[in-house]
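Teaching assistant's notes for section 4

Start the section by putting this record on the projector. Ask students to predict, before seeing the second block, whether Bifunctional uridylyltransferase/uridylyl-removing enzyme will look compact or extended. Collect guesses on the board.
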Amino acid sequence: MSTVRQRLRVARDARALCDRAALEADLSRIAREAGPSRDRHSLIVGRVKQALAEGRAVARSWLIEDGAGSACAERLSGLMDSVVQALFGHIVSDLYPRLNPSSGERLGIAAVGGYGRGTMAPGSDVDLLFLLPYKQTAWGESVVEAMLYVLWDAGLKVGHATRSIDECIRLARADMTIRTAVLEARHVAGDAELIDELITRFDAEVISNTAAEFAAAKLQERDERLGKAGASRYLVEPNVKEGKGGLRDLNTLFWIAKYVYRVRDVNDLVAAGLFSAAELKLFKKSEDFLWAVRCHLHFITGRPEERLSFDLQREIAIALGYTEHPGLQDVERFMKHYFLVAKDVGDLTAILCHALEEREAKPRPKLDRFLTKLKPRRKPKELGDFTVEAERLNVKDDQVFARDAVNLIRLFHAADQNGLALHPVAVRLVTKSLKLIDGRLRDSPEANALFLEILTSKRSPVVTLRRMNETGVLGRFIPDFGKIVAMMQFNMYHHYTVDEHLLRAIGVLAEIDGGDAADSHPLANEMMPTVRDRTALYVALFLHDIAKGRPEDHSVMGGRIARRLCPRFGLSAAQTDTVAWLIEQHLTMSIVAQSRDLSDRRTIQDFAKLVQSPERLKMLLILTIADIKAVGPGVWNGWKGQLLRTLYWETENLLTGGRDIGDRNSLVEQAKTELRAALPDWSDKTFAGYAQRHYPAYWLRVEPARAEAHARFLRASCADGCKLATDVKTDAFRGVTELTVFAPDHPKLLAIIAGACAAGGANIMDAHIHTTTDGFALDSIFIGRAFPDDHDEMRRARRIAESVEQALVGDIWLFDIVEKRTKGAAAKGRTRPFEVEPEVTVTNAWSDRHTVLELVGLDRPGLLYELTTAISKLNLNIASAHVATFGERAVDVFYVTDLTGAKITATVRQAAIRRRLRAVLETDDRDEAKAAK
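Reveal the predicted structure now:
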């Protein structure tokens, strides 16, 4: 649609949203008929609010009908124009008429900022510049004040300034924010000549010869903004306005283009040589989509909400007409479109930056920050069809890919090998040559060998792979990867899209491979140099989530894809088997470590049977660590690392023929001997008496350091004659705080402890329950650390310990406290948009001595307390509990026996357990839980 036709359409739409003349007539009538000024003001404000509400309702209905986001933003801007014009006309005609105006009694009103561009969201600020010829007059002050009070009281957030033309020019020279606002100035009401004079002088006195300064400032401002909002455009809860690839990036593009190229309309960017016709179309398409999302966000929430949070994504997806496809929810399809648009915005930004460089309006970039520390092996002299310009790799001519499609892979390989950034000209040509990536190129042995070298590079493979992904080469060269590009997983666990997660995982593996960050994963760093086939490990990690978004189990399907792709990459049959196995089992080690009793010999035996070889165990450990760390910030912690290390060493010991895991008696005696050596100040009689208090299971489960701490804790407690005692200890490396509870044993003990922790806002991560031969319980509860400082964390832990003691002696009534605390947390909970089908597994196959309950459901505050309470009412003893949360998905595993210490074998009894625990998982109704109590 031509610009003129578009403006006529928007003007017509604005009249449909609000008839300016009719509104001004209504305001004038109210001014004549109303009584005191206070009543008149209220009626005026009421009529303005009515006009805005009615206009926005129509705009929303049109947005739902046609889905045109840019048009909606323009309509809302036109609505605001009508309101401002009508209000100004009423004020200067009815309240402060100029009977004999002086030369100073002139006032122009300009829209600036986003409003100046002629686009607004329902909750956008109204940015106004009240422009004076030279200084303020009493008349002008009265008009501005009257307008602002009406707009404020109508519920609008008005950004305003009252300045003369000289002041605007002076301030614009000194302040880049003011300069940007004036750049967007557009006449709305009042004296148009003043606005025209400002624009003319601004062009001549501010813009002239300052293009480079403005461009550099805006790009630096963008970098700082993205640093605050999140530098990745693939965050699963993106900020539509301020985030990377959002509307502000498009605004920045046009600000710079308007300033540097002196264009007035986005359509002029083609004539200026900045964009091609196709790129201009992409700009408009991206802007239209982002405006549709932002307007829906504001309409749905009733406020200027800019973050596309989980609880809003599905509603907006439905409003925009997305539907479910096999393997993908409606919301996941919508978010994939969003991230593809964000990528397009990034491409447009790169095009602009290159154009600015060519005009020398922007300094040329240095090498990628990841590559600057990597020295080239040699100074590149001759790179075949490529050249080096200003330390960036470029193509010799625009036929380089047409002559030989393998050059599309060679380009990235050469960039990696020589530590070079890519020239924008080369990047642009790559994106225009994607159709050359066909079956012949995919089957080319040379192309696949080059790709494998990129993937396993000792330099920084994630940088090159991300470039390949951004240009579209990676998805075309590996179509299975292309299917997961920009794919979002609608859950709270994963912080990034699937493709971004895979690339970040490769980055973590390269970090381990390079020996970095040994403090956070020491075992992986120690094991990596001993891995015999690092190529298979890199390929497995790169492909481990390749089948996400399909109806089948992604681990099983991913193994099938690997068996098809690995021979193409040039891997042997043995390597292919290893890669497929690693993909099929890539979740297993994490699940076993976090939700199984690692002191139960059956756990280690079953896991060892699955792994079968120390080499596979080593590779699976490293892959698991890289996978978890790449999920998002804060997901990896020392506690998970310790669990994985314990599982690794126990399994490795069994696989390599170490101590016999079945020789319980010798292990018990060895543990007692080690503890005796650690307590030289104890007499033999004292130690023998203490040792008799523990069952064999205690000696098999507890490591020496904790056993010593327990011994000293119990001796001190018993010396005081206490039958109830608690102790707390922080562990900064593992990110947990250990709460030790010594109390008379009874079935509800863990439920009471869980309730006290829930009341104190503590998140239980694991629980080891030990029963003594004299009827006491010695429980170790591991809670997530809340404070980095040990003193703060210890104060918190002691408060929780005091709550546990008070609950155990009956001084506080836990249920009411937990209910009050968790109700407030649930009301603000972020898990509400999600659904997790409850699963209850009751099995005797995972342990030789216990029945194992695995409970999966939607996480919520107080869930562990409810589950342990229900288990105690089922007359079950809990031997150990393992609590894991994956975003909104809670996976709680309990090792239990009946009150006689036996497994639960009766089918009827197992069915009753399933029914009761499933009922807890299915309800979030605290009143129902209270009634059950």
